[in-house]
């Protein structure tokens, strides 16, 4: 038998020995936790998405419109009519691609806030959904400080945030944000799936100075990193709802207190 043939025979025997062990190891792995919406305490609802009847979240973030990067900086309304959700706390969300808002832009947003409240809704305030680069937090803080001054005194200000802020954010810029916004909702997903390696970001969250929620995507994988839920600034989770046709996981069977299920 040639040397090459002998080596091939050894490899075959090794694979035959290892295959049952690998299969058994796979069978012993626990089910991957999946994010579910029916037990969520807060949800994001974008236009075109209709929450299932079992979704009973007390806090709802509703996308009202966008300030797009093309053309003049104006509010493009995406929601037809005024929501009427009694018994829920609403946040009016504006998705922004730019920060050069005009007086007309801000006036349109303030008018929608007033209209939502006049319709009998409990409106907590405004959330700005803007992907501010970590190195640009200082400028973003200045924009938010000006915006906050224009909001009614009883309206709160929320923003979405990137996980990288906790790891590499300038402490001085974060302190500026802490004095301006009421909460940060830290996004853990991108393009409908959980960002891999999120544990490393949350491991450096110890000194984060702002009250925060953690945004999870419905059906995405998630296991709370050690210490997260005991963080003094942690305020819970918010689940981003997907249209039913886009969900890739079966509906949950067993209810739990956390927004997780086993797939």
UniProtKB/TrEMBL annotation:
Q: Which domain of life is it from?
A: Bacteria
Which SUPFAM superfamilies does the UniProt entry name for this protein? Answer: (Trans)glycosidases
InterPro entries reported for this sequence: DUF3142 (IPR021488), GH (IPR017853)
Name the record gives this protein: DUF3142 domain-containing protein
Upper taxonomic classification of the species?
Bacteria, Pseudomonadati, Pseudomonadota, Alphaproteobacteria, Sphingomonadales
